[in-house]
Amino acid sequence: MSEIERYIAPNQLDDALEALAGGPVTIVAGATDLTPQITGGKRVYKATLMNIQHIEGLNAVTKKDGKIRIGSLVTVSEIRGNPMLKKHGGILCQAANHFASEQIRNAATIGGNICNASPAGDMIIPFLVLGAAVELARWQDDRIETRSVPLDEFFTGPGRSVARDDELLTAVIFDVPPENSIGFFRKSGPRPALEISTVSIGIGGDFSDGTLKNVRVAFGAVGPTALRGKLTEAALEGKTLNQDVIQAAALAARQDVSPIDDIRATKWYRTHLIGVFTEELLNNVCQN
Amino acid sequence: MSVKIKLDFTLNSRPVNIEVPAEMTVLNLLRDGLDLKGTKYACGEGECGACTIEVDGRTINSCLMMAVDLQGREVMTIEGMQEGHALHPMQQAFVDHGAVQCGFCMPGMIIQANYLVKQNPELTREEMKRGLEGNICRCTGYTKVLDAVAAVVGLNERRN
User: Fold this and answer.
1) In CATH, which superfamily holds the domain spanning B4-80?
2) ipTM of the assembly?
3) Are B133 and A101 in contact (CB under 8 A)?
């Protein structure tokens, strides 16, 4: 653990971004990932510790002009209990419902779960299925400059992303899904709570007359980053769901993933589970 | 040594003014800085719930929260649940139902159980199980813990 020379807790986004531009800063919000990483020796504090929890405007969930915007400080508990999201992004609430424990859901933020960039980050999967983009803000020429990055282009490896050191993730944004959209999330671990997923999966799209369109499939803990299942999506796009299509999709899913052997599961088991869960979720879609 | 930060917050209804090292956790502040040993250190990584406290009406793992983040907040630990010398109804229910064995997980378990009942006074047994998922007890097998919480919920219903 290295020394913290300065602690700041700005109320305004521009103050926070100016501090980031001034360099090396450890950002903290809920601290549920940061603290174990520090005590476990996987990370060291930078000279400045910045608590972003007091920044105004980053803790709202809003629906406007066909978009849903979730501020980066919104907690997993808030997502889990949000009635508007239950209606328009139910897969987010499903994932939040299976996230860690009540105590951790009360502290953990969406921005933290994404920026931690774990291949097993549970909230990343539903956001990938919803086609979300993240908003990154930085201080440039005495003003706030933002850019939008599609979430499936955000991650570059375990714990790594395209976010620059001077950028702060301010929101996750996605289009309000159409009325006929469906979404299912499933994760696996030895117990239902407080598990880092062995694998996780999300499937979503527009579903009418037994046919899936605009399909998005996402997998967690089966590669260096959470990833979109492009082969699985192609196997499903525009198809009327029947057992042949479901079996073909389950096979494609096994080809989409590149898991490793680690402490939580073997490569073989993870690949097997991905096939099983793909089949299970698609059967759920049929029964929907 | 990291920089020290001045903090003002409310702990069990009393104001606290203290200086803490920037990297200190809330759990270490409570136990070592303020000598409140009711809140327990067990896993140190948010997996067991023994360090559960209430901050601004929501339960969190105090081993994960940074002490500097307490600025301006209201904190309740197990020491704050008692009313005078009388046990809180949740504490009494745990005693009455034999829910306590070694007792190490109990401060966190009782804080979390009380929070769940405050959130939903008509909690079902299934909802209790979900809500207590983050609190691990190695002795009891949980049945008597759930019996104790159920009794408190029943009590609330009779009061209504």
Assistant:
1) Beta-grasp domain (3.10.20.30)
2) 0.94
3) yes
